[in-house]
Amino acid sequence: MATTKATAKKATTTKTATATKTPTSKKDTAKTGKMEDSEFHEFFVDELKDIYWAEKHLVKALPKMKKAATSDELIAAFEKHTEETQQHIQTLEQVFELLGEKAAAKKCEAMAGLLEEAEGIISETDKGTMVRDAGLILAAQKVEHYEIATYGTLKVFAENMGHQDVADLLGQTLENEKATDVALTEIAVSSINAEAASE
């Protein structure tokens, strides 16, 4: 009986404390979900900054990859993905806004390395060859696989924290990245790999 009373008293105290707690700033009230002040939330936001940097640098690198490509199909694919990447940047800015956070970029070492590798492929292969195009597809798909892993994980993080609106936006970008990866594979398999092998 004493235990029941103690539990009831503790529950009442907790309820009162919760009811009287007020937000500490406008920033807190602007956020959605239920884990705004958690370490997990801060980690999530930090990773959003990472992929934001990645997308902003990828959108600058894609036109260079397009210029280096020979196949009309590959040129068109790079052009299309440049436009899509600009949309991904806008989507991430929308995500930051929904979370009540400032859209800020933090250097993504992984993307920096992948883009450096793409530049290396361009400099180490001959212009106008399918070997270069095959190399460009390899570089682009490495980028896509990194982005697929990142967006897939961030989507699940958002769902676990109750940010369903954010998860939906990240999910849209995830599906777009998957579609781009499939398109690059189709271009490679349809002709470029075979032509590169015979050069």
Largest sheet: none
Q: What's the mean pLDDT score?
A: 87
Q: Tally of extended strands?
A: 0
Question: How many whole angstroms does the radius of gyration measure?
Answer: 23 Å
Distance between the termini: 87 Å
Strand content: under 5%
The secondary-structure class comes to: mainly alpha
Put simply, the count of helices is 7
Order of helices and strands: HHHHHHH
Percent helix among the residues?
A: over 70%
Poorly predicted tracts of residues = 1-34
Using the alpha-carbon principal axes, give the shape.
Answer: elongated
What does this protein structure show overall?
82% of the residues lie in helices and 0% in strands. By secondary structure, it is mostly helical. Helix 4 (72-98) runs antiparallel to helix 7. The longest helix has 35 residues, at 164-198. The protein is elongated.
List keywords for this structure.
82% helix, 7 helices, mainly alpha, 199 residues, disordered N terminus
Write the layout of secondary structure elements.
Layout: H1 2-20, H2 26-30, H3 39-68, H4 72-98, H5 109-124, H6 130-160, H7 164-198
Helix pairs in contact: 3-4, 3-5, 3-6, 4-7, 5-6, 6-7
Question: Care to give the gist of this entry?
Answer:
The protein is an all-alpha fold and 199 residues long.
